[in-house]
Amino acid sequence: MARTFRATLSLSMQGKTAYGKVPIDETVVEELGLRPGETLRASMRGTQFTGKVHGSMKSPGLLVPIDVVRSLGLREGQGVRVTVHGRT
Question: Which end of the chain is less congested by CB atoms within 10 angstroms, N or C?
């Protein structure tokens, strides 16, 4: 069952790799029982990708591959609508 939420995109580095980062809505975390380290199938603006849940249980986020961020022309601080389709 897909879940859609709105979030603000930020950019960060994980090791030597750049990623987009969006906080995951609390209700989505609770409904899907998400935990840091899990991999999700998600989409933004019709572009599907695989992202990893990161952060803590209190404030988890979704790492978005930088090529997805660039292909959609997204920038830091921009509001986005994210749809989580499920786990991989």
Answer: N
